[in-house]
């Protein structure tokens, strides 16, 4: 069947194939586009061959393309949509709207498309362009699990003045009973199924599950009213470190730590209503709270291995006292003592002749003072005043973190953590294989199983500690660029300021934010 002809060639259709028979060479290729627009059902498949044939007279017809159907429907691979293609001229479409509509309905039925069929204005259809004719209903993912925890009072010291005395207060110890509610998880919910264009149901994904983060030695999970509830195994003090809830055993001391109590060493949190007398020590795994308004004078050592320390009064160290915490230290004032905090060191009023070390050292920016001694931080030092009018030597130092070394340590610890995780998977697999036949085991085999369980628990605890160390190192790295010393009111002459390898000694009263700008200290 001849579709088109002129003096140069004729175009023929046979069994959905399109051929050209050249009679005379010289027809311009660009003019062939006009013929294609007039006959949109022609789809070229060999452009190079067409170009050749337009310039050569041949005795036979050469295949150059295919003959498209007038109307066709194309279904997406995921069966969620169908597109309509009309390979007719716009004039033809406008003149044959009803017949095209009828044909579309037949094609939808032939392709078993029953869901999400759209009303399409056929007169607006563009020749050879896809028009969405059916759209499935996608599945909706269920709600993610919702986690909530016991809300602990913010650990932020408050300085109150009543005209007679200054009070340095904060919410520090939060006691609970065994079985107390610590948090809960509302489970991830099922989603809403979808429907493809064939009317078939599509399963919906559940919402994302989230774990409750807690210390398994001091808390446990239990299913209650369709929720996973977190409860305390013991009576004690609730603590939260790096997103993990734990309950520490609590040792309350009504009076002082001294001759009557001896030195205190406790696997939990300690609250002392009085003070720590000269020469005595308190060491605890958890938080330490010393609530006597007179503070501490001449104590030997106050140390929290994993928690924070709060001293309501001041510290008169007499060059003997060391206060050390893995987390934060909160104290009213410090005289002649040595304080070391893994995180923030918060001082309400002043530090006099003391050595301070922390990630950040924060002295009240309204009237706080650092006079004499040395303050060394990794990130930030904030105070209202530093030094004094007598030009007492005072050192403010930011020891910036070495990024390259920190990254090496992080990578090393991460490889250790990965190895531990692989070990845990193997141990869990061993236990899972044994549990179904546990009733057949001998005493010796049961003992071996118990050893495996203990090894798994120990590995999990070590892995959790390592994971916390990695997160802390990464957090430290993120804060490196923010390193600064901020003196809000007066930095007196004699104050030594150092950030990284850059340093200076002030020779006049100044204030402001001291940091590295363009490689130099901006003093």
Summarize the structure.
The chain is an alpha/beta fold. Helix 5 (403-434) packs antiparallel against helix 6 (443-478). The termini are far apart.
List the helices and strands and how they pair.
Layout: E1 2-5, E2 9-14, E3 17-22, H1 29-38, E4 42-44, H2 47-53, E5 62-67, E6 71-75, E7 81-86, H3 90-95, H4 97-110, E8 131-135, E9 146-149, E10 158-161, E11 166-169, E12 175-176, E13 181-186, E14 194-195, E15 201-202, E16 219-224, E17 227-232, E18 236-241, E19 244-248, E20 250-253, E21 264-266, E22 269-272, E23 281-284, E24 288-290, E25 296-297, E26 301-304, E27 309-311, E28 315-316, E29 322-325, E30 329-335, E31 338-341, E32 344-363, E33 369-386, E34 394-398, H5 403-434, H6 443-478, E35 484-491, E36 495-499, E37 502-505, E38 510-514, E39 516-517, E40 520-521
Explained architecture:
With 523 residues, the protein is an alpha/beta fold. Helices cover 20% and strands 38% of the residues. The chain has 6 helices and 40 strands. It has a 19-stranded mixed beta sheet that branches. α5 (403-434) runs antiparallel to α6 (443-478). The radius of gyration is 39 Å and the shape is elongated. Keywords: Coiled coil.
């Amino acid at each position: 069947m001849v579709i088109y002809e002129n003096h140069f060639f004729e175009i023929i259709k046979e069994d959905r194939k399109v051929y050209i028979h050249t009679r005379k060479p010289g027809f311009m290729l660009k003019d062939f586009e006009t013929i294609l627009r007039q006959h949109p059902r022609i789809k070229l498949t060999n452009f190079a061959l067409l170009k050749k044939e337009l310039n050569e007279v041949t005795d036979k017809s050469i295949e150059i393309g295919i003959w498209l159907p007038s109307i066709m429907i194309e279904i997406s691979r995921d069966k969620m949509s169908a597109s309509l293609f009309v390979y007719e001229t716009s004039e033809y479409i406008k003149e044959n709207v009803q017949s095209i509509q009828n044909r579309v309905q037949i094609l939808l039925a032939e392709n078993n498309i029953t869901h999400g069929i759209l009303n399409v204005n056929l007169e607006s259809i563009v020749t050879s362009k896809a028009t969405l004719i059916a759209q499935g209903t996608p599945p909706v993912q269920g709600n993610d699990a919702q986690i909530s925890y016991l809300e602990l009072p913010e650990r932020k010291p408050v300085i109150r003045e009543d005209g007679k005395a200054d009070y340095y207060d904060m919410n520090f110890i939060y006691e609970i009973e065994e079985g107390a509610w610590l948090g809960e998880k509302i489970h991830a919910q099922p989603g809403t199924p979808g429907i493809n264009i064939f009317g078939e149901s599509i399963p919906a994904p559940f919402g994302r599950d989230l774990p409750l983060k807690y210390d398994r030695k001091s808390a446990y999970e239990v299913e209650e009213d369709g929720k996973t509830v977190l409860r305390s195994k013991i009576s004690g003090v609730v603590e939260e470190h790096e997103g993990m809830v734990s309950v520490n055993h609590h040792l309350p001391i009504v009076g002082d730590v001294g001759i009557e109590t001896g030195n205190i060493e406790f696997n939990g949190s300690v609250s002392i209503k009085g003070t720590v007398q000269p020469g005595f020590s308190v060491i605890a795994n958890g938080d330490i709270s010393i609530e006597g308004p007179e503070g501490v004078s001449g104590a030997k050592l106050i140390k929290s291995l994993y928690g924070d320390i709060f001293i309501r009064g001041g510290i008169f160290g007499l060059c003997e006292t060391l206060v050390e915490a893995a987390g934060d230290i909160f104290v009213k004032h410090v005289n002649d003592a040595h304080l070391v905090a893994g995180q923030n060191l918060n001082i309400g009023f002043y530090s006099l002749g003391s050595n301070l070390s922390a990630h950040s050292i924060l002295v009240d920016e309204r009237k706080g003072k650092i006079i004499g001694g040395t303050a060394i931080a990794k990130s930030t030092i904030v105070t209202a005043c530093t030094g004094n009018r007598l030009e007492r030597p005072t050192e403010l130092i930011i020891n910036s973190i070495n990024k390259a070394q920190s990254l090496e340590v992080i990578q090393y610890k991460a490889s250790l953590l990965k190895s531990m995780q692989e070990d845990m998977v193997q141990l869990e697999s061993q236990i899972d294989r044994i549990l179904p036949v546990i009733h057949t085991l001998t005493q010796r085999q049961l003992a071996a199983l118990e050893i495996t369980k203990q090894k798994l628990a120990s590995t999990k605890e070590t892995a959790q500690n390592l994971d916390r160390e990695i997160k802390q190192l990464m957090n430290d790295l993120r804060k490196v660029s923010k390193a600064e010393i901020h003196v809000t009111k007066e930095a007196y002459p004699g104050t030594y300021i150092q950030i990284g390898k850059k340093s200076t000694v002030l020779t006049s009263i100044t204030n402001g934010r001291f940091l590295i700008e363009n490689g130099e200290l901006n003093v």
